[in-house]
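FAQ: What does the model actually see?

It sees only this:
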Amino acid sequence: MFELVLLCYCVLCLGVYCGYLLRGSLTAKLDSDLPLENARLHLELSRAERFRFGGGPYSVFVEVRGDGLWCVSDGCGSVLDRDRHWVFEPHNSSRTEEFLAGTRFTYPEAITLAQLVLLDNPLHQEELDESSLPI
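And it is asked to produce this:
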């Protein structure tokens, strides 16, 4: 299984912008016998608004979009639709219901799509294989 680097941005109740960089296997952390550490990690992750997948010259982001839904973003104004095509994300007032239905996902769906996009990219094919996906 590949090492996943997540860059988690969060806003604390004080309104302070803070970033967490987590390395390694989150599964191993969450399954460990350290309940206090797990609770702290779960709290930090629950505040996250953005996760970065990939690295170097090519990354994709899983970003919160409200109502418990997430999108997969290229970080430059485009989001992934259900057919794995990049589409420009218009301003909030210009987004149609059809656009939202096609580009908003549950958290597990968004994570899987982000990993599939990296699988499609030759730069990351050595890092990922389909057996590492949470499908």
